[in-house]
Amino acid sequence: MIIGVSCFANCQKLTSIMLPNSLKEIREYCFCRCAKLTSIFVPENVEKIGLHVFAWCNNLLSVVVDDNNPFYDTRDNCNAIIESGNNTLYSACSSTVIPQSVIKIGDNSFNYCEEISTITIPGNVVEIGFQAFYGCNNLKDVVFQEGVREIGHYAFMEVNSLKTITLPSSLRTIGEGAFERCDIDTIFIPEGVEVILGNPFKGNNPKHIFVSEGNRYYDSRNGCNAIIQSHNNVLITGSCSTVIPSSVTMIGESAFDGCIGLTSIVIPEGVKRIAHYAFANCGGNRFLSHIDEHSLLFDLLKKEQCDGLTSIYIPNSIERAWGFVFGAASNLKIMIPKGT
Questions:
Q1: pLDDT at 294 over 50
Q2: Pick from 176, 184, 187: nearest CA to 154
Q3: 264 near 241, Cβ under 8 Å?
Q4: CB under 8 A, 24+ apart: contacts of 3-11
Q5: DSSP assigned state of 50
Q6: DSSP for 157-219?
Q7: 35-61 exposure pattern, b = at least 16 Cβ within 10 A, e = fewer
Q8: pLDDT digit string, tens, across residues 165-198
Q9: The pTM is what?
């Protein structure tokens, strides 16, 4: 027996369900948005459970798997479904407590558990998967015990109550958009971090950004309040208080995305390229550029992102600009230099 995709989705009055022992598979979104569902028992013969099975089930407090199921378990009364063979937490609810024996928090496992306010990541957890806590809007406190090595792409995306984080010294990789559109005030990158993909903090508006002085791959030189890739001098994460060092050669994609309070910034003459969405969602900024003839103003002002921009200075050195450079900046006053 199989229960199909979205079979009971949006059954707003469903409070309980008894699944038969003949059940083999529960497919994606099966109980999605069943707002009054409080408990579920997974029978011993279930072999496959799809993603997002309990997404937006905010009153779900009890998740139990039959002790005889060889594929899944709910060890230590954790109120979550664990894949037994690889110790991966697969599907959670608002009352889940992550067992110490879990080594991975699976992709999408806590999606839209909107009642969670605090979570502890045990020391045996090595990896936090893709979008693992995406949309947990009331999650205010994440405690990372030492052991976590990788935070996956968009793992805490749109956890907009998350204002502070302390990343563990064991951390090695931070995925793209890992903390996108949170509300983190202070960012500190530990010494051991080796790989940062894109800007994990885009859509935040941090006041302070630091990189450990012992980090060999990234730095925040000259107290610049930014994250810079040391080997190629690319600024990947900025803030409203960033002062771009003269040694920076490129402003990376989405580097200043969401820095609402950014009103002006000096782009040093050493900057050769400004990447896509570098200043997205920074309404009202003024850019003071001293850029040489090899520079590219590349997608600096995307159509939907700089409505508040009122003026920009383009130096005589700029010979060419292309793409949606000025987009729908309807209040913009601009003087095009001779020879451009």
A1: no
A2: 176
A3: no
A4: 3/27, 3/30, 4/30, 5/29, 5/30, 5/50, 6/30, 6/32, 8/34, 9/33, 9/34, 10/34
A5: -
A6: TT-TT-------TT--EE-TTTTTT---SEEEE-TT--EE-S-TTTT---SEEEE-TT-SSEE
A7: eebeebebbebbeebbbbbbbbbbebe
A8: 999 999 999 999 999 999 999 999 999 999 999 9
A9: 0.85
